[in-house]
Write a structure and sequence with these properties.
By secondary structure, the protein is an all-alpha fold. It is built from 17 helices and no strands.
């Protein structure tokens, strides 16, 4: 379809700039004055549970939901929604299996629990694995945020001489700087309150886009089937058993994979656990976590519907065809926003996209710096430090990780496939080992630190080989990413118990 306008307008840019300014101010002032590392990273442990729930959703959502999930529905169907049901099941398990242990003592990070159960070496090992995984996965997410901003910049004459890579690089740097301002000054409490605002902004923006799409597409959802051919775009449940492990988004693969991924991400990942540690009580943490699972299902449904309506709006034209003005699935929604929405509304929706992005990026910076500080720096170098010096080092670490995330995002600029699956795949590689190690500590009383370290290493090695071997030989992956956590966790638990058995025999 022919665009109704030439692209981004000055008024849209004003809306976005005002929004970014407001976010920076709210994040900086709502965090209050931090006098200690606990204030900076845990918000004094007195944040309301509903705010934490919304912050969890905002942190895990990022730009990937905003642009990749509609793109996924455009090229496929609604099968991805099965995964979100698994997400809810996983959160319920974490609420009653892991959270009581977290809230029992004065734990400062997710990996302090492993030190209590196994020892300091296991805590440091898990923390280092988390750092590498979070940097890689959130580097992808940061790159995803730069996609719509890069499309905006292309419409300005100033960027006529810039290459695509340069435009993406500039976009990434701008987003990082704005997010770093309020993360540095407001701490985790400032991040949480900004997340509450930003979740409302990006969900509202998505809803506005969906309403406009319904207005522009005669027949609404029924028009989707006109261009889908033999493909059932409304397919919600996939009960196929052929290619059980390699077929994307089968019912059992989605439920099991979503459940275990959620158990790993919300039970062992400092990005989420840090937020759960800011509540007043165990009951508040449980309410926050389970409620976030319900909200996520609603949220993914909204974005998948946007994708179906985009499919109808662009009349089902394949990506990369002459009739389709986009070359990536992740460009479909941003392209529609920039070229088919009215001025002002376009700026508001792009602001919503930035909201989704900055919430995850801010949480990532904070969780990376908190894990580095509390799991690695303080036990080794900071035992005699004052609170003032520890707080100063914590802020420096926030800046350091912001720079590292920017560099990693640069590496994904030339990636063409859907970035949501890349990010989830990266996370799943190590999540299995992390989840398996936590389960070894909670469910198996006889295991010790040696068992945990051997099992953890085996789980990660298994997943690395499972992914690298198909890549090296240019063959189709043996299993879909939804099975990664199950395989990694199972290997960790099996090897951990074998090592325990051998030790007891000796």
């Amino acid at each position: 379809m022919t665009p109704i306008n030439s692209g981004f307008q000055t008024f849209d840019l004003i809306v976005i700039c005002l929004y970014l300014l407001i976010v920076a101010l709210i994040g900086s002032f709502s965090g209050g004055k931090q006098r200690s590392v606990k204030d900076y990273f845990l918000g004094g442990s007195n944040v309301p549970w509903w705010a934490v729930s919304f912050a969890i959703v905002a942190a895990e959502t990022s730009t990937l939901t905003f642009i990749s999930i509609p793109g996924l529905a455009y090229i496929a169907n609604l099968n991805f929604l099965q995964v979100t049901v698994g997400y809810l099941i996983g959160r319920i398990v974490v609420s009653y299996l892991f959270l009581p242990a977290y809230k029992k003592g004065e734990l400062t990070t997710a990996y302090a629990l492993l030190e209590n159960r196994f020892g300091q070496t296991t805590r440091r090992y898990a923390s280092i694995v988390f750092l590498f995984t979070r940097v890689a996965a959130d580097g992808v997410r940061l790159f995803a945020t730069s996609i719509p901003l890069a499309l905006i910049f292309r419409s300005f004459p100033f960027f006529d001489g810039f290459t695509t890579v340069q435009i993406y690089a500039v976009s990434i740097v701008i987003i990082t700087i704005v997010t770093l301002i309020y993360t540095y000054t407001g701490g985790v409490k400032g991040i949480i309150w900004v997340d509450v605002l930003q979740m409302g902004i990006y969900l509202g923006a998505a809803l506005i886009a969906l309403i406009i799409l319904f207005h522009k597409v005669p027949g609404g959802l029924s028009a989707v089937s006109q261009f889908s051919g033999d493909i059932d775009k409304f397919s919600l449940i996939n009960i196929k058993f052929s290619g059980f492990f390699s077929e994307p988004y089968t019912l059992f693969g989605s439920l099991i994979g979503g459940c275990l991924l959620s158990m790993a991400s919300h039970g062992t990942d400092q990005l989420i656990v840090q937020r759960l540690l800011t509540t007043k009580s165990l009951k508040d943490s449980q309410k926050a976590l389970i409620t976030s699972g319900v909200v996520v299902i609603i949220q993914f449904t909204l974005f998948l519907l946007v994708g179906l309506m985009l499919f109808a709006f662009f009349k089902g034209n394949p990506i990369g065809s002459e009739a389709a003005p986009f070359t990536k699935a992740d460009e479909i929604f941003p392209y529609f926003i920039i070229y088919y929405l009215p001025t002002g509304i376009r700026g508001l929706i792009i602001a919503g996209l930035f909201a989704a992005a900055m919430s995850t990026l801010a949480g990532s910076m904070s969780s990376l710096s908190s894990s580095t500080m509390m799991d690695l720096y303080q036990p080794i170098f900071g035992r005699k430090n004052t609170e003032e010096k520890d707080l100063y080092v914590s802020r420096l670490l926030t800046i350091f990780w912001g720079i590292i995330l920017t560099i990693v995002a640069f590496l994904f600029i030339r990636v063409l496939q859907s970035v949501v699956e890349i990010a989830l795949g990266i996370s799943s590689i190590t999540y299995g080992g992390l989840l398996g190690t936590f389960l070894l500590g909670v469910l198996f009383r006889k295991t010790n630190q040696k068992s945990a370290l051997w099992g953890f290493s085996a789980g990660i090695l298994c997943m690395v080989l499972l992914i690298i071997i198909p890549f090296l030989f240019g063959i189709k992956p043996i299993v879909h990413w939804t099975w990664y956590v199950l395989i990694g966790a199972s290997m960790t638990i099996i090897v951990g118990n074998i090592v325990t058995y051998v030790q007891n025999r000796k």
